[in-house]
Design goal:
heterodimer; A: mainly alpha; globular; disordered N terminus; B: alpha/beta; FAD/NAD(P)-binding domain; 2 domains; four-stranded parallel β-sheet
Chain lengths: 97, 418
């Protein structure tokens, strides 16, 4: 775990009730347009529900910098600052099926 | 008598009566239109607050999706793969009123349905999609669409255009006319030209495609034009506005497109006509003189009629295009805002994403994406984000975007209809 890199993420994770759909942070609800909320959808795009927040955060940082190859995610990651990304990652991490 | 009959019909259809009876006072939401915006919004509201009574007014038993319908026209997929029912919506607790909305009384906060039944609401969401503007292009009256299909609402029109292409002799001329902005699915005419070109190249290689445009620029233009030069050299001719591409009238009897400079007689004629927000918006007083609906950028509430939200293709969404992805994203933001407002809370300042996939060939996908936030009263692009696929990319990259496009279609339809 490299959470020490991500104080905002740790803060977001510490917030109670982050898993409630009504508390979705800005931007989070758009992700499921491509990243299926349902387990049954056949797609090459990975699901985000229940994924470790640190994995989402690192992926978004690397998409944004260009360090990780992407088709469309580099263009999308650039629309979110670090606290926004961290909050979205924490919220998905707190979701479960 | 008629009131009783419609009451019984609704009750039988969806066990409406108990829910409505118990919902007097607060928490009634009516959603008009069961497409990517409306069906998503209705289901999401119900998921966020199961106590709310949510009624979806949609006359069709089956929704036929426009995204990927260009593939049906080109013979790459079947119309049934575009069709989705409302069982999942009902399973999530949404009441289905399978009829159309006849009129809206904004002061009484009621929707009168086509069958005479009346629904009261605390919040109304209008997501009617587009109507074709039958007075927007001389000669293109409703009956003309049987000769020169628009295929801009998926269904029988999609199949008609496909059958016409299948019946065309090799060496024929396919003509498509594209309208001025704004219209549903900005890259759609160019994806359609691409996939029809794919069909012609593989099945009728002596044929040509002429694309007459009322614009000088279009979505993903450089990507489309590069791909056309690479995949379909000499097959597609695009005529821009400044080159005289604007169609000023059509003659359905002779399949002729008339511009200021020429007359083009087609073997197969596809008219993508001017459009406007679905008719119910004008009746409700939420459409302005442009024919589209201005909304504020946080909850997508009409700036003309408070308490009525407008979503998807019908609305003016600033920088966000009229796409299925955008409609679905707006619907989820609107749902959260409606639930907040009904609970006496202020909705949060949203962020929205759009990603539009187009196929230039079955294994060649391209995208345009954007991230949006409220700014100066409308949704604005976040600077530095978004944009189109790289102009220079290898075949594997294009193929990967085609694979993701297919996944996207399965995801967005599951996300919308359950």
């Amino acid at each position: 775990m490299r959470c020490w890199l991500l104080p905002a993420l740790a803060c977001a994770l510490a917030q109670p009730g982050a898993a409630h759909a009504a508390d979705a942070p800005p931007g989070a609800s758009s992700c499921s347009g491509c990243h299926a909320a349902s387990k049954t959808v056949e797609t090459a795009v990975p699901r985000l529900v229940g994924r470790k927040p640190v994995e989402i955060v690192m992926a978004m940082r690397e998409f944004k910098s260009g360090a990780r190859p992407a088709t469309v995610m580099g263009r999308i990651a650039k629309g979110f600052n670090d606290p926004e990304t961290d909050a979205i990652a924490a919220w998905f991490g707190a979701q479960s099926d | 008598m008629s009131t009783r009959r419609t009451f019984l019909k609704l009750t039988a259809a969806a066990s409406l009566a108990p829910a409505v009876a118990s919902a007097q006072g607060a928490g009634r939401v009516v959603v008009v239109g069961g497409g990517f915006a409306g069906a998503t919004c209705a289901r999401t509201i119900k998921k966020l607050d199961a106590k709310l009574t949510v009624t979806l007014v949609e006359p069709n038993k089956t929704f036929t999706a426009c995204p990927f319908s260009n593939g049906v026209i080109a013979g790459l997929r079947e119309l049934r793969q575009q069709q989705f029912g409302y069982d999942g919506v009902v399973r999530d607790g949404v009441i289905s009123a399978q009829t159309s909305a006849g009129s809206i009384d904004v002061s009484a906060k009621t929707v009168t349905l086509a069958d005479g039944a009346r629904l009261s609401y605390d919040r109304l969401v209008l997501a009617p999609g587009i109507d074709l503007n039958w007075s927007g292009l001389p000669g293109y009256i409703e009956a003309a669409a049987e000769k020169m299909p628009h295929a801009w609402k998926a269904g029988p029109q999609t199949l008609l255009l496909r059958r016409q292409l299948e019946a065309m002799e090799d060496g024929g001329l396919v003509v498509i006319s594209a309208p001025a902005n704004p219209f549903r699915c900005p890259p759609g005419p160019y994806e359609r030209a691409s996939l029809i070109a794919y069909y012609l190249k593989t099945k009728k290689p002596k044929s040509k495609l002429l694309l007459l445009d009322a614009k000088d620029a279009f979505s993903k233009q450089k990507l489309f034009q590069n791909a056309w030069a690479q995949l379909y050299p000499g097959l597609i001719e695009w005529v821009s506005l400044s080159q005289g591409g604007k169609v000023t009238s059509v003659d359905p009897a002779t399949l002729t497109f008339v511009t200021d400079f020429a007359r083009h007689k087609a073997s197969v004629a596809n008219v993508i006509p001017p459009q406007k927000a679905g008719a119910i918006t004008a009746q409700a007083g939420v459409a302005d003189r442009t024919g589209w609906c201005p909304v504020e950028p946080v909850a997508f509430e009409s700036t003309l009629q408070p308490g009525i939200h407008v979503l998807g293709d019908a609305a003016i969404m600033g920088g966000m295009p009229k796409s299925a992805f955008a409609a679905n994203a707006q619907a989820k933001v609107c749902a959260a805002a409606v639930v907040a407002r009904l609970a006496g809370k202020e909705p949060v300042d949203p962020r929205l994403i759009n990603t539009c996939y187009s196929l230039v060939a079955p294994d060649y996908g391209i995208t345009v994406a954007g991230v949006y936030r409220p700014d100066k009263g409308q949704l604005a692009d976040i600077a530095g984000a978004g944009g189109i696929s790289p102009i220079e990319a290898d075949a594997a990259f294009r193929a990967q975007e085609a694979v993701y496009a297919e996944g996207w279609f399965r995801t967005i339809t599951a996300e919308t209809f359950g």
